[in-house]
Amino acid sequence: MAKTILIIDDSASLRQVVKMALTGAGYNVIEAGDGQAALALLDGRQINMAVCDVNMPNMNGIEFVKAAKQVAAYKFMPILMLTTESQEDKKMQGKEAGAKAWMVKPFSPTQLVAAVSKLCV
Questions:
Q1: What is the pTM of this model?
Q2: Closest to 90 in 3D by CA, of 60, 58, 56, 62
Q3: Cα dist. 46→6, 29, 51, 95 in Å?
Q4: Theoretical Cys-Cys bridge with 98: which of 63, 69, 103, 114, CB 3.0 to 4.6 Å?
């Protein structure tokens, strides 16, 4: 059965690029436009991993990671931060919140698929 990846980004075009790369690699993909919408999807369905932006309206990526880690069923779900942010302090905030990896945009779809396949167990 294909693994399901949750893509969280306020840019519809970026979600589309990520979705094409991941569905092309055989993953199922569900999408959310911000952290709040993504949190609503953590409703017991099988989600193997999340790919999340940092800067978004309503609830940013770091807040989403913290909130997702409070939901028992998703406590150990790996989360890859995919963002334009490259500062060390942002990376530390992400790591402290529970993010497993950090990838800076622009990215290559091949890089993304390789990172997802490593993290998505």
A1: 0.97
A2: 62
A3: 10, 11, 15, 23
A4: 69
Residue in 73, 82, 72, 76 with CA at minimum distance from that of residue 109: 82
**CB-based contacts of 118: which residues, under 8 Å, 6+ apart?**
none
How many domains does the chain divide into? 1
Give the C-alpha separation, 57 to 35, whole Å: 8
Can you list the residues of the chain whose pLDDT is less than 70? none
Looking at residue 73, what DSSP letter applies? G
Instruction: Please name the amino acid found at residue 10.
Output: D
| The predicted structure's pLDDT at residue 121 | 73
100's enclosing H/E stretch is none
β-sheet bridge partners, residue 101: 80
Q: For residue 105, give the CATH number of its domain.
A: 3.40.50.2300
- CA–CA distance, 34 with 53 (Å, rounded to integer): 8
Residue-number span of the structural domain to which 92 is assigned: 4-119
φ/ψ of 14, rounded to 5, equals -70, -40
**CA 8/CA 82 separation, integer angstroms:** 9
